[in-house]
């Protein structure tokens, strides 16, 4: 059975990523990462709301800029929902996403066999004028009536 969770980078790992990219460990960046460690996949407004619950007011725009900057440096990655809302993923290791189109949530799906099959197939393919640099698989699903078979 495929694994469905990935451990988020620890605060020490996050600090190491920041240093490697020449970014300062600001209070806001650290707070955003702390929230992302719990949420895993989140939009800027979700993170901002969590920060507000802790008594830390950071505008959604500031949170979005922090998350985007981290994604630009590949410390986080981006996910675009079916409603065109930008979500960010704290984990950048290769994994598949299961996107719930009704609840607009993401779950990690670790399926090495599927990932290797797709990668193997694509290695044999050429796309004129392009070089494939990565593979990003997103499965779009909706909840079943029976929750007992959920991943």
Features of this protein?
3-stranded mixed sheet; 151 residues; alpha+beta; single chain; 3-stranded antiparallel sheet; globular; Arc Repressor Mutant, subunit A
SSE arrangement, N to C? HHEHHEEEEHE
Radius of gyration, Cα only, in angstroms? 17 Å
Label the overall shape.
globular
Instruction: Please state roughly what percent of the residues sit in beta strands, choosing from under 5%, 5-15%, 15-25%, 25-35%, 35-45% or over 45%.
Output: 15-25%
Structural class: alpha+beta
CATH class: Mainly Alpha
Summarize the biggest pleated sheet: 3 strands, antiparallel
Number of helical elements = 5
**What helical percentage do the residues reach?**
25-40%
How confident overall, as mean pLDDT?
88
**CATH homology superfamily:** Winged helix-like DNA-binding domain superfamily/Winged helix DNA-binding domain
Q: Find the CATH topology.
A: Arc Repressor Mutant, subunit A
Unreliable stretches (pLDDT < 50, length at least 5) are none
Strand order of the largest sheet: 1-3-2
Distance between the termini: 9 Å
Number of DSSP strands? 6
What is the number of domains?
1
> What CATH architecture do you see?
Orthogonal Bundle
**Oligomeric form of this entry?**
single chain
Task: Characterise this structure.
The protein is an alpha+beta fold and 151 residues long. The chain has one domain: Arc Repressor Mutant, subunit A (Orthogonal Bundle), CATH 1.10.10.10. It has 5 helices and 6 strands. The strands form 2 sheets. Strands 1-3-2 form a 3-stranded antiparallel β-sheet. Strand 4 and strand 5 form a beta hairpin. The radius of gyration is 17 Å and the shape is globular.
